[in-house]
Design brief:
Rossmann fold, N-(1-d-carboxylethyl)-l-norvaline Dehydrogenase, domain 2, 8-stranded mixed sheet, alpha/beta
């Protein structure tokens, strides 16, 4: 990780306050890393914050994050507002933010939404005078944390990347227009989330038919570089833990396919399977 911030950023001043809308896995992971830098403060709002405590609010405060009761409160004085809600709330978060975003304030939308959803979100922020930057998080954040690859698009993407990369992020500007980063992310998601759904069904059927070893052995002959039993287990665990969020992302991918004129039924079936996988764990 970079050394704590001590000098000015290229293209502007210091980033001294970051505000999160949404404080799930991504928000918590990023916030903990940002707070390792001297002079940086973090606020967060989440609809699950209880007014007088609660698990998620307590977790935020334990990290040193200012937990606020409304997003506008957290955004006051922030250099960057990071939207990290669920995919289906992406545009709604931008609509709300348009009421309080300050002129020139960065709104970094890292939700896994379709290109058109991101474009609509951008309009809300830019009409209000903010600087909308789309972000596409290209891998799970658990291990790389701030170093997870993020593609960025928008007029100010290069400036924001310079500033946040100085705080340990790994942002790559790919376009000055909004949509390209999200399209890259969701095309990848069709494969990753689809494979998760397929492996959940394959492993369950193979186990119940008492042929799991034979199936994995056959798969290994075709794809020898993959440890299929381990992959099946890890993908099932991902679906059980994150299936609701992943289902929302896959419905955004399906919307993208519709907008491009392709059949989205398979993507929507994957979304349904992700959601079912998450509900399986909740009933155990």
């Amino acid at each position: 990780m970079s050394a704590p911030l001590s000098g000015p950023y290229a293209g502007g001043g210091h980033v001294v306050k970051i505000a999160f809308i949404g404080f799930g896995e991504v928000g918590q992971t990023f916030a903990a890393e940002f707070l390792k830098f001297r002079g940086v403060s973090v606020s967060a709002f989440d609809i699950q914050f209880a007014p007088n405590g609660g698990l998620l609010r307590d977790r935020a405060e334990a990290l040193g994050v200012e937990a606020v009761d409304c997003p506008s409160e957290g955004a006051q004085g922030a250099d960057v507002v990071i939207s990290a809600v669920t995919a289906d709330q992406c545009e709604a978060a931008a609509v709300t933010a348009a009421d309080y975003i300050s002129a020139g304030q960065f709104f970094f939308d890292i939700n896994s939404a379709s290109p058109n959803t991101k474009r609509r979100a951008a309009v809300h922020i830019e009409i209000a005078g903010g600087s909308y930057i789309e972000g596409a998080v290209m891998a799970a954040v658990t291990v790389p944390k701030l170093q997870v690859p993020i593609l960025a698009g928008g007029d100010g993407a290069a400036i924001l990347a310079t500033r946040l990369n100085a705080l340990g992020m790994n942002i790559k500007p790919v376009a000055t227009e909004v949509g390209r980063a999200s399209a890259t992310k969701l095309c990848r998601s069709i494969i990753i989330k689809g494979l998760e759904a397929l492996l959940c069904d394959c492993s369950a059927a193979a186990r119940d038919s008492n042929v799991a070893d034979d199936v994995y052995r056959s798969l290994s002959e075709t794809f020898p570089s993959i440890d299929w039993p381990s992959l099946a287990l890890s993908m099932r665990e991902r679906v059980e833990k994150h299936g609701i969020r992943r289902a929302a992302e896959m419905r955004e991918a399906a919307d993208m396919l519709d907008e491009l004129g392709y059949d989205s039924r398979l993507a929507r079936a994957v979304a349904d399977r992700q959601e079912i996988g998450a509900s399986v764990k909740s009933t155990r």
